[in-house]
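Cross-check.
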Amino acid sequence: MQNIYPPMKKIYIIIFYTLIFTSVSGQDLIELISNRICNCIDTIENIDSLEIKLDRCINESVTVFWNSDDDEQLEHFADSDTIQNTIDSVMTGFVHRCPKVMAFLLEEKEGKFYKLSDSGVANKYYEAGIKALGSNDYKTAEKQFLKAVKEDRNFVYAYDNLGLTFRQLKDYKNSVRYYTKSLEIFPEGRFALQNQAVAFLELKDNLNALKNYFILISLYPDNPEGYFGSARVQYLNEAYENALDYAFYAYKISLFRRSDHVKETEELIIMIRDKLKGQSKLDIFDKKAKEYGIPVE
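Predicted model, tokenized:
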């Protein structure tokens, strides 16, 4: 079988944009092919090795189903258009179905964007801003970080710290604004996603805060931040049963990772429990606690 898909198709670029809702035809087949590709890829040494392995594994995996005797599956390989649609659908959601590839690509992107600027002048302003921020001199920090991004329009660190500076100044609109600028450059940035969500909450924009937390969960499923944030927002929205699921999940991950979130997650779980008790739904709490293997006093 000839090569039917170009290597990678710059797959790392589309991580964020296919993140939350991916609707494709023949979802079962798409998932089967994706899982087979993921299993085919063993170790990932670098981006070049991933491209080579992905190119080979796509072709091998699609061939297996192309040669299937299943008439329903064969419908997705009827002609050149349906073949291409099937492969496009696989690649659209593949990264999110293959955690090891996702983790590798995110690490690659973090290395590209979470760093100092190539401009010495921008770095000089940035370092002055960090010093001012450490001294709680937020106005000076703001001026220095603004000078840094003027020198380097793609300076993610500087935009992130501008967002943080405006949060400290309680100027939450500008905080959201500069985190947005950071995310325009690095859409998967953990710091900006997480801290922008906090600024959204200060603005009573729970919907956008929840969107950020859902993105964090999808991108960084082993990090408790997204789950805890989602639980907190849904608690504020009085969606206590949904909040409980996320809180229990955050608690288990926090325990496993020995995170600082353990105590505050315990406190949030107690708050949710009290709300459910007030609604005569304590049985729901007990049932979910049992499902998650969390002892209840």
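The two ends are 61 Å apart (CA to CA). The mean pLDDT is 86. Passed to J.P. for a second look.
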